[in-house]
Write a structure and sequence with these properties.
mainly beta, 4% helix, nucleus, Elp2, 2 helices, 46% strand, tRNA processing, Elongator complex protein 2, WD40_rpt
């Protein structure tokens, strides 16, 4: 009897409509919350186009947040079902040399039916041991310890600490950073407009769990804090050279940690965590004042010392970034460290529909503004690509190919160009049917749209048409010929739609085949911008 095998060729879906639904998990890979699934989107190095190559099951409700550890060896997903899941690469590569193994779930935190998890963070403190932080809608930030055990006992997961997210509200964002000597920094930002920074140390005896002390409360934001992210300037004692001092970050030193916080007050604040001097000399204070005046910054000595074991660290405001016209939902450091010239780079996403890339030259300034349409909720960037997701789950991908032929232009320093990324329905799919050619499928969903996906010549499966935007949730659809289909919605009316010659021309260019009967179709159709196709 002949065996039958199958391969995954195409995944369609929208990103979850939350600010923390995407994070980088590899050099060319991003993990996305996609409804109850986690999708792994790979970005092709040659074309710069992105497509979902793997889906991870486990959550029973919408995945709200995804966050990877600094070394990308694992990531955590949190969902509305009250649980968070730890995902790690399998050691099995499927027989292909150099190809990483599939992601698999190695731990479940929390219990089904608990408060929705809205933010997560993870840090690998030593091989086989990780610290995970979750924040839920019940206003509690929980610290967990995950220890891998290759024996019969299996992996061990235990809660080690609970932290209150202020007297009112809850933490909307959390971030972890590992610094020298097993010390961890934890930052939270929430609905009270305060950024809280904790210092923790791994216990040398007993379980080896991390315990965080009292937080330092950083005021300044005038609205909800929507995102926080750490950036290690350099690690102490790991052999890395101190990064070259330049411009607005000339005073950053090896061992310092930069913290970015985004807020609905339309501003991003950059805080600097540095070693607290036991006693500053008069000359040190004079030098600091001179540097601040040279950068046109106000003089400030409002550094707050973190409670915790030595070495003691202090936190102070370093910069305020203001250029967005709407709520700033996301602020993330570029995964490769920075932008042109190796400087520090930051990427932000806002309700004004734009994603901005910031670099620290003489002062922090935006060097690129991308988008400008639908409100953006989150964005991540690495090397020559940037991925953002919008309010209704749409993915926006840009690539900076560079123009090596022009003087002064190096790869990754040219104009940003849009690239195709995965797309799909933002609500449950109700029906799917094949086109007679076998090269396309039609789907309808509870997001009140009908979409056509086709196998294109150069970029794989892509959404090529959205012929119907309805006023009711869609329920069923079927092709009634090569150029027409019938659909039905919840208002119990069936409607027939036909293609146009304009679509037929686009179909031939994308798919490489002529649409049968295209010459008999009407030339085109128009629809008001805010109208429904019904």
């Amino acid at each position: 009897m002949a065996s039958i095998s199958s391969i995954l060729e195409f995944v369609s879906g929208a990103c979850s409509g939350t600010a923390h639904a995407a994070d980088i998990v590899g050099e060319q890979s991003v993990a996305l919350g996609m409804g109850r699934y986690v999708g792994i989107l790979d970005i092709d190095k040659d074309s710069g186009m992105g497509s979902v190559q793997e889906t991870l099951r486990g959550h029973s409700e919408r995945v709200n947040c995804v966050r990877a550890s600094a070394d990308h060896s694992l990531f955590v997903s949190g969902a509305a079902d009250g649980t968070a899941r730890i995902w790690e690469r399998s050691e099995e590569t499927g027989g292909e040399p150099g190809k990483p193994g599939a992601w698999r779930c190695t731990g479940v935190l929390g219990a089904a039916g608990a408060a929705s998890v809205v933010a997560v963070a993870a840090a690998v403190v030593q091989p086989g041991q990780a610290v995970v932080v979750t924040s839920s809608t019940d206003g509690v930030v929980r610290v967990w310890q995950h220890v891998r055990d290759q024996g019969a006992a299996g992996d061990q997961i235990e809660p080690v600490q609970e932290l209150a997210a202020g007297k009112r509200g809850s933490a909307l964002a959390v971030a972890l950073a590992e610094v020298a000597g097993g010390q961890l920094l934890l930052a939270t930002g929430g609905t009270d407009g305060v950024v809280r920074v904790y210092s923790g140390q791994q216990q040398q005896h007993g379980s080896g769990a991390v315990s965080f002390g009292a937080p330092v409360c950083l005021a300044g934001h005038e609205d909800w804090v929507t995102d926080v992210d750490f950036r290690l300037v350099a690690r102490d004692g790991d052999g890395q050279e101190e990064e070259e001092a330049r411009g607005a970050t000339a005073h950053w030193r090896a061992g310092d940690v930069a913290l970015a916080s985004a807020s609905q007050d339309r501003h991003v604040r950059v805080w600097l965590v540095s070693r607290a001097a036991d006693q500053a000399s008069a000359q040190d204070l004079l030098d600091a004042c001179t540097q601040a005046l040279a950068r046109n910054q106000p003089l400030s000595t409002a550094a707050q010392v973190l409670a915790g074991p030595p070495p003691r660290r202090s936190v102070a405001l370093d910069a305020v970034l203001a250029a967005h016209d709407g709520w700033v939902h996301s602020a993330r450091w570029r995964a490769d460290g920075g932008g042109t010239g190796g400087g520090h780079g930051l990427v932000t996403a806002s309700a004004d529909g734009s994603a901005m890339l910031w670099e620290a030259a003489d002062a922090w300034q935006p060097v690129a503004r991308l988008g400008g349409g639908q409100a953006l909720l989150g964005c991540v960037a690495r090397g020559p690509w940037l991925l953002a997701h919008g309010l209704h789950g749409t993915l926006h991908l840009w690539r900076q190919p560079g123009q090596p032929g022009q003087p002064g232009q190096q790869p990754g320093q040219g104009a940003w160009e849009p690239r195709a990324a995965s797309s799909g329905h933002a609500a449950g799919v109700r029906d799917v049917c094949w086109h007679a050619s076998g090269l396309a499928v039609l789907s309808v969903a509870a997001d009140q749209t009908a979409r056509v996906f086709a196998r294109t010549q150069h970029s794989g499966w892509r959404e090529v048409a959205r012929p119907q935007v309805h006023g009711y949730d869609m329920r069923a659809a079927a092709f009634v010929g090569p150029t027409a289909y019938v659909s039905a919605g919840e208002e119990k009316v069936a409607r027939v739609f036909g293609a146009t010659r304009q679509f037929g021309s686009a179909w031939a260019a994308l798919v490489g085949q002529q649409l049968e009967g295209c010459e008999r179709l009407v030339a085109g159709a128009s629809q008001p911008v805010l109208g429904l196709s019904n």
